Amino acid sequence: MINVTLFSQIISKLDNSKFKKLVTIHQSDKHQKGFTSWSHLVSMLFCQFAKSQSIRDISNGLRSATGNLNHLGMLKAPSKSTISYQNKNRSWELFRDYYYVLLESLGQQAQMKRTKFKIKSKILLLDATTISLCLSLFDWAKYKTKKGAVKMHTLLDYDGHLPAYVNITDGKTADNKGAYDIPLLKGSVIVADRFYNDFSLLNVWNSNDVYFVVRHKNNIKFKTVKELNLPQDRHQHVLKDEIIELTGNKTKEKYSKRLRRVALWDDKNQQTIEVITNQMSWTANTITELYKARWEVEIFFRDIKQQLHIKSFIGTTQNAVMIQIWTALITILILKALKTQAKHPWYLSNLVAFIRLNLFVKVELNKWLDNPFAKEQPPPNHSIQGGLF
Fold first, then answer.
1. What pTM, to 2 d.p., does this model score?
2. pLDDT tens digits, 353-362
3. I need a surface site. Which of 45, 194, 345, 350 has the fewest CB within 10 A?
């Protein structure tokens, strides 16, 4: 019988040594009074897994754990005031940097096999989502006159459906403006919606040998240089494939090179979708399928908002909000790794719900992931009493 809780076993998946190195770099344990950066991380992960609605819930939830908290790397459960103070004062950059450290290890475990595309390029899906906040409480989160918000600009890795890069800005920052800071990987392909149809941005990507597939706006001015042949007996959803040049004075100045324009019919939504790309050799069908794959970033935003705790916040300072968002990203990384490793065909929503119900149950994590509905075997009968006859 295992003597460690499910939550403790999940926490043991994290690399404590690399976290300590980051703590040293950020000096985040300087002047701390018993509540270390690691204890802070565990507390905020508990907030995400348990979907705690307040600091009181975190404190009381950890206090309710049977036995001591040594298995979690904590001496004792933190008080409400301690969590509140550290959320306000401990640098959120520590948790951001730890997410990227974990992405290199756990992210590899969360990799999924690609079956759709036979291209060597790394596929990255770009989009942004707005997280609404009450302006009277979060007065730093500028968005509209009476509304506050932060915007999470996300570059999602298609292989693991995990963010390769996240840039969190105020709600007023336009999607394309938040994309200028994303790291560029030579030879990769970035797939994005029409909000990223910024020719200055596309020129930066092209200059760095990055491919892009972006839905273009209806009002762009161009001329057709060459019509490419369409497949005769297959891929009937491809309506047009052509090489174009921009003719608008401002757009041509921002992007002077030729582009490829592909139009496809979206049968599900009964509409025509037109995309532009700087990739000239892939088939038109590959281009259209890449754009359809962009929907995965929308699914990621849905999952993180519905399954985790980032629609309401336990602290009102900018630092507290950033810590909660980055620990939510660490949580989704852990969950994706567990889901990929498990033999049971988990849906992410079911996995989150089951873990939430069994956080402090003492059961072996790997066996539970593989077979969550296994019945316990009755204890063996050691009776040595003989029969009467």
1. 0.90
2. 999 999 999 8
3. 345
